[in-house]
Amino acid sequence: xxxxxxxxxxxxxxxxxxxxxxxxxxxxxxxxxxxxxxxxxxxxxxxxxxxxxxxxxxxxxxxxxxxxxxxxxxxxxxxxxxxxxxxxxxxxxxxxxxxxxxxxxxxxxxxxxxxxxxxxxxxxx
Length: 125
Description:
By secondary structure, this protein is mainly α. It has seven helices and no strands.
């Protein structure tokens, strides 16, 4: 059974990029498994941040945007759909724009929670 969580299409995108680049997916799996051990830490830390309005740092938001662009470009180079990466990038870009308008960093958490009213999102942390 397939999971409805976004990590599955992200994993599919990553493995498609590996395969389309001529590399062996099986060689990638140990690295993916090892990196996934950080997920509990991230969930614990970000849940605390989200209870306080969400984590945001303008330089980091810009870095996430640039990282998404790198994945989009790499996917295009090997012919892999980057819809998921474009969606993530749209959130990072929205957070950067909201941060610039607010004069303070605005988290993607705040933007998602205040989707009905973006003006409330920019008043957050």
